[in-house]
Amino acid sequence: MDRPRRRVVRMPTDAKPGRVQRAPEGFLTQQQIAAVQSGRRDFLRGAFVAASAAVAGTAIAQPLRGSDFKGESEILELPEHTKGLGQPVAARGYGSPSQFEQNLQRRESPGLTRVSAASVSFAPLQALFGIITPNGLHFERHHQGWWDIDPSKHRLMVMGMVKQPKVYTMDDLMRLPSVSRMHFIECGANTGMEWGNVAVPTVQYTHGMLSCCEYTGVLLSTLLDDCGFDRKNGKFILAEGADGSSMTRTISMDRALDDVMVAWAMNGEMLRPENGYPIRLVAPGLQGVSWVKWLRRIEVGDQPWATKDETLHYVDLMPDGVHRQYSSIQECKSVITTPSGGQTILDKGFHNVTGLAWSGRGRIKRVDVSFDGGRNWRTARLENPEMPKCLRRFNIDWVWNGAPAILQSRAIDETGYVQPKINQLRAVRGSRSIYHNNAIQSWKVAETGEVSNVQVY
Amino acid sequence: MDRPRRRVVRMPTDAKPGRVQRAPEGFLTQQQIAAVQSGRRDFLRGAFVAASAAVAGTAIAQPLRGSDFKGESEILELPEHTKGLGQPVAARGYGSPSQFEQNLQRRESPGLTRVSAASVSFAPLQALFGIITPNGLHFERHHQGWWDIDPSKHRLMVMGMVKQPKVYTMDDLMRLPSVSRMHFIECGANTGMEWGNVAVPTVQYTHGMLSCCEYTGVLLSTLLDDCGFDRKNGKFILAEGADGSSMTRTISMDRALDDVMVAWAMNGEMLRPENGYPIRLVAPGLQGVSWVKWLRRIEVGDQPWATKDETLHYVDLMPDGVHRQYSSIQECKSVITTPSGGQTILDKGFHNVTGLAWSGRGRIKRVDVSFDGGRNWRTARLENPEMPKCLRRFNIDWVWNGAPAILQSRAIDETGYVQPKINQLRAVRGSRSIYHNNAIQSWKVAETGEVSNVQVY
Question: Which residues form the Moybdenum cofactor oxidoreductase dimerisation domain (chains A, B) (predicted)?
Answer without folding.
Answer: 332-441
